[in-house]
Amino acid sequence: MKSISNARGSTIVEAIFAASAIALLFTSLLVVAYLCFAKVWSDNRVYETMICVAEKNPQWQCEQALSSSLQTVLSLSQIDNLLVTSRPDSIDVQLHLEVLKGFHMNEEQSLKLPLQGKL
Amino acid sequence: MNQRGSAVTVLLVSLPLLVACMAVCCATVLLLQDQQKSLQICRQGLLQAQQNMLDTAQILFDLNSQAALLRARRLAAEAMVLESAGNPITTPPAVANLEAVVAQQEKFALAQKALIQKANWQAKLNIYQVKGKLQSAINRKDSNFTDHKMIPELDLIATPKSSLTPNYRPNPEFTKTQVMRIHWSTKLTASLQPWLNKELENAGATQDLQGQCAVTAEKKGEGKWISRLEKDKSSSNSFLSLF
What we know:
The complex is a heterodimer of chains A (119) and B (243).
Chain A: H1 2-54, H2 59-73, E1 77-86, E2 90-99, E3 103-112
Antiparallel strand pairs in A: 1-2, 2-3
Helix pairs in contact in A: 1-2
Chain B: H1 2-62, H2 64-83, H3 91-138, E1 144-146, E2 156-159, E3 167-170, H4 174-177, E4 180-187, H5 194-202, E5 208-220, E6 224-229, H6 235-238
Antiparallel strand pairs in B: 1-4, 2-3, 4-5, 5-6
Helix pairs in contact in B: 1-3, 2-3
């Protein structure tokens, strides 16, 4: 009886460890996937914002489009800081994003003007 | 053993969920990269095509002073012919001078027209090259291109109109009339890897993936024209409509 009870006890412990390990692995994979996606998406949107300003659209409109696209698609993230600077010879965008309430992401891109076939 | 069995069951149940999440992530990243690449090709190509056209137009504009000089010479030659009318000594050289000036004008007019033709043909060729590059980047048989007013011709005003060698200048609406635009659409499912394709087709995802880019001409500084991206209401945010 004692050996059966010991075996059951060790099975429970193993099951708990296995379940925890699986949960940890899955969560880590999902977090990594989300972070990768957030990076690619914010990268893409920041670039499109610079193009939007280069197209002579009002700057506020481009900033608003960026904010709304980030909020819609990356709903688990929060914009800490967004700065779009438009100069006659360049456009700069600085974005500071807090992803999953713990990961900070900095995105800085610059576009030289006039474009003339070089993007 | 039952507990171990349930752990394996949890693993088996949650694994497809994890794989599905990863697949959606991969699909979206692939789509984004695809779209970004196509837009990049389109924008770069059209900016270059427009600039080539404008550079040729600039050469034509720079010839205006010579055109004006030839017109003045012709007026002077015509005046000499009129003055010498009836005089058998001065008339032949005056007429010969006028003929020489007209010949110069005809040669010059040909050069002007050749430049206009060159700009227009160059634009056509460049845009077809951009379309070709886009087609191979999208690499789908079912992609559609809209050609509506895709290739503009140099919109110039000649003054004086009746002259053989007029001055050419851009139309006041030049920025609007010089717009080059390419619009394309492809099936959303056609941009993905076959294994993702099946999943999305089963989910009923048949939305078109659209792209568009446009460029126009802008006067910069002392009369120099440069190409710039034109406001595009659809392409920047069209991708958002997928979500």
